[in-house]
Amino acid sequence: MKFTGAVINEQGIDFSIIQVKPGYLTQQNLQSIQNQAPINFPRPVILAEQTTDGYKYLGRPDIVNFLSGIYVEQIPWQNYSV
Known about the structure:
Blueprint (H helix, E strand, L loop, with lengths): L1 E9 L2 E8 L6 H10 L8 E7 L2 E5 L2 H8 L9 E4 L1
Parallel strand pairs: 2-3
Antiparallel strand pairs: 1-2, 1-5, 3-4
């Protein structure tokens, strides 16, 4: 499995972001991806979907709110293979 994601520590909270294809930003996919994400990826996992208006996020509300307030270029995206 290959994906683009980021591991972040912000204000003492470790979390992961995983990019998904348009249309995959659902609660069911979030739970599935959380279960399939590599063990070394911190939880909670946040899903990110690129739209024509920027990025939309799904996951823990306080983290989603934080991510919505920063530029996507600030996220340290990397490509992963597992």
